[in-house]
Here is the input.
Amino acid sequence: MRNIDAQTITPAFLQRIAGCGDPRLKQVLGALVTHLHDFAREVQLTEAEWMAGIEFLTTTGQKCSGTRQEFILLSDVLGLSMLLVAQHHDKPAGCTEATVFGPFHTDDAPHLPDGADLRGGAPGTPLDVAIEVRSLDGRALADAEVDVWEADADGFYDVQHADLDHRRARGVLRTDAEGRARFTALLPTPYPVPTDGPVGQVLVACGRHPWRPAHLHFLIRAAGHETLVTHIFREGSDYLDSDVVFGVRSSLVAEMPEVAPGRHQLRQTFVLNPVMAGATP
Ligand code: BEZ
Ligand code: FE
Here is the structure.
């Protein structure tokens, strides 16, 4: 095909992938390029602007490392991560809602006994947490895996401290026969997402703040149930209505009252969605 113009380029591309043997790839790539072309036409994108875009994406890739994922951060601040959560984790009423995973989970958190203190020396106010894990019909879920992680009072996850040689403010517990688990964590405080990279520059350029409201992360796995990835946010925290990654759901906001001088408490029930026989959790 010759003499392509700003309109015929799109059907020309789609024709070029007509023989693609992977139907899903053909659908996704075809739609992506169609929207990209529409976008360039709509904003009359200049070559200089696209070059700036290429430089931004290059810097974003260069910022990534074993402990830093700038592309996930980009997806988070653009709202794409939360859009996918909303699209794929729409659970039946009564189930605990999901929210973004974020970049700070690790697979090597310590496995801790019931009642453990997972702070590991991290600075902050103690928070005594008592949780229950239940199925949608109210049945207690015994032996569920409860993976918890959070930032310290300085606003950093352990993996962000280059000089730290152990995991802290994170841990994996299992529920008892009543579906319960108890542990001591840190009273969460708001913190900014990393701003020393290209994503931070975008936030500044757009006049956006980088803050997340105070929260703890939970990843809960129980046999026969969908895995739940969620947070519990602290009632009264700043930024609940302007979370930089759009992750707050009202049902996930909980009171964490001070129950003794300098000691707070959280009681929380998580309700997991049973999977249909034959479905993958
Ligand atoms: C977090 O809550 O850990 C997080 C989520 C998205 C981007 C950055 C951090
Ligand atoms: Fe977080």
The longest strand covers residues 126-135.
